[in-house]
């Protein structure tokens, strides 16, 4: 049940590709909680047209194309969003990821470095680009909030997560480093949410993903966090109830990150 937690707030949502995207669910919840939204994705992703349905649901939210590796696109996005809202932006969701080497089925010990560059640019440096663009345009209001989505492979080895593990480590580091500067400048907070494995287009690209999901489910005292629950958590991080939380990587994973072993897994091993 909505609580109007984002009443009067204006946000930009990156990364809603289809209705299984984490960003899609987060946009729906933000709208239900009273926010006004601008939706964005890479031009090629927008061509699929699915995002129009989300826009309609969210009160005909404008859709502004932006490739996160293009500074011109990002400047245009923030400028047009402020024109649309008639004010600065209160929150930004960065839900963007792509591994070029995983797509090519390149093993971690045989990475193509050009592709790796692209992976880092799209999946991690893009957070710096988003923050720097907003910072320079003074596009985010005081006490604004930026959230990017991460995964625990930034801290622990999940071999098939491949180069994305390193991209996520960089993403989390950028949230910390930029969180310092943006906090000082304008009381803007920046955090990453480290989400349980979730069935989405990006998630399904990871080899052995179903195994990942069921292992995590058995290792989490509360079970895996769903996309809807991720959306609820992000709403709180965009709301005024978390204004002093910044530069954190916040695990939203049902307790997976701090569980060494579970009885469910012990039972499996003893079979
Ligand atoms: P998704 O495939 O629905 O979303 C990924 C989005 O990134 C897509 O909308 C895609 O168009 C966008 N994107 C790719 N290249 C882009 C570019 N150059 N410019 C702009 N946008 C671009 O998948 P999902 O899972 O919702 O991914 C969202 C975020 O959540 C990603 O950062 C992912 O790593 C993260 N995450 C996902 C988990 C999962 O198990 N699905 C778990 C933890 C984190």
Structure description:
This protein is of the alpha/beta class and 271 residues long. It contains 11 helices and 6 strands. The chain has a 6-stranded parallel sheet, with helices on both faces. The chain is globular and about 60 Å long. The mean pLDDT is 97.
What's the helix and strand layout?
Layout: E1 10-14, H1 22-32, E2 36-40, H2 43-46, H3 51-57, H4 71-85, E3 89-94, H5 100-103, H6 113-137, E4 140-150, H7 163-186, E5 189-195, H8 201-204, H9 209-219, H10 227-238, E6 249-252, H11 263-270
Parallel strand pairs: 1-2, 1-3, 3-4, 4-5, 5-6
The structure holds 1,4-dihydronicotinamide adenine dinucleotide.
Residues 15, 17, 21-23, 41-42, 45, 67-69, 95-98, 122, 149-151, 195, 197-198, 200-203 line the site of 1,4-dihydronicotinamide adenine dinucleotide.
Q: What name goes with the CATH superfamily?
A: NAD(P)-binding Rossmann-like Domain
Largest sheet: 6 strands, parallel
Bound molecules: 1,4-dihydronicotinamide adenine dinucleotide
Q: Structural class of the secondary elements? A: alpha/beta
Number of DSSP strands?
6
Just give the CATH class: Alpha Beta
Q: What is the N-to-C order of secondary-structure elements (H for helix, E for strand)?
A: EHEHHHEHHEHEHHHEH
Report the end-to-end length measured between terminal Cα atoms: 43 Å
């Amino acid at each position: 049940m909505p609580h109007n937690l984002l009443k009067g707030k204006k946000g930009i949502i990156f990364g809603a590709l289809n209705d299984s995207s984490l960003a899609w669910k987060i946009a729906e919840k933000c709208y239900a909680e009273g926010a006004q939204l601008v939706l964005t994705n890479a031009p090629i992703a927008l061509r699929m047209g699915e995002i129009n349905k989300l826009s309609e649901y969210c009160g005909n939210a404008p859709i502004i194309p932006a490739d996160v590796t293009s500074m011109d696109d990002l400047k245009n996005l923030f400028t047009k969003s402020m024109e649309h809202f008639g004010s600065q932006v209160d929150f930004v969701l960065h839900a963007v990821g792509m591994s070029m080497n995983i797509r090519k089925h390149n093993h971690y010990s045989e990475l193509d470095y050009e592709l790796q560059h692209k992976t880092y640019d799209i999946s991690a440096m893009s957070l710096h680009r988003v923050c720097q663009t907003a910072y320079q345009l003074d596009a985010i209001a005081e006490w604004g909030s930026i959230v990017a989505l991460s995964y625990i492979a930034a801290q622990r080895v999940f071999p098939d997560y491949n180069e994305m593990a390193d991209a996520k480590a960089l993403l989390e580091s950028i949230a910390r480093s930029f969180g310092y500067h943006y906090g000082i400048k304008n009381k803007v907070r920046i955090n990453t949410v480290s989400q349980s494995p979730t069935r989405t287009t990006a998630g399904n690209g990871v080899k052995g993903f179903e195994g990942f999901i069921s292992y995590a489910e058995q290792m989490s005292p509360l079970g895996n966090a769903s996309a809807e629950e991720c959306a609820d958590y992000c709403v709180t991080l965009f709301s005024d109830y978390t204004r002093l939380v910044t530069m954190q990587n916040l695990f939203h994973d049902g307790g997976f990150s701090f569980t060494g072993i579970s009885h469910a897994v012990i039972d499996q091993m003893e079979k």
